[in-house]
Model the fold of this input.
Amino acid sequence: MTMIELLVVIAIIGLLMSLILPAVQKTREAARRTQCANNLKQIGHALHMFCDSNNGAFPLSSHGTSDLEKTWIYTLAPYFENVDKVRICPEDPRGPEKMEEKGTSYGLNEYLCVPGKDEALNLNSLRSTTHTIMVFTLSDSRGVATTEDHTHSRNWFRKPESKTWNRIVADIQPDRFSGAGSSAPPEQRMTGYANYLFADGRVQLIPAQTIRQWADLKRNFALPDLCPDYP
Done:
């Protein structure tokens, strides 16, 4: 084989690799996205079983008790055989830290676990389980401790309204998959998708752009019974 032939072969291999790698990366991301959805479905099953055993009451978050062993991270664990990995999204760059600190990639909707305005602390009080998000994917910019176990949904739409999107992406990760990442400026966080667990048990993949549109329209999608429809 001459040098020219060798260079041609190397060039062809390089071209093939450039065509194959993106497809492989997309396949891997799709697998991680599916695993994330399965995690949320297991958490959803656990939540429903917990509510059935507690007259419909949702479990506590760290905002509602100083005893961390009474929070959902501990009280739901028996329902998925104490497998901590269920709480960790495979795409979460801080996943290993959260495993070590008994943390989570997913957070309960504040309206369902923290008393206050527009609360819905009982599953039976919901008028529309299909329009209520129970669990969100938490932002990478948040901590890894057990106390980071719920959203701050009531904070998103307060004044000034110009900061709504900044507050949302600081709290949850609407671009978990194929997004710009938490280190990108908020205005660049409108690509990609994230999984959301609804109170009827389904997991919905919603684009970050849709979440941004709801934010711009001042539609608080975290409010119980009021999350807009997404096909």
Summary: The mean pLDDT is 93. The longest strand covers residues 193-198. The CA atoms of residues 100 and 144 lie 9 Å apart.
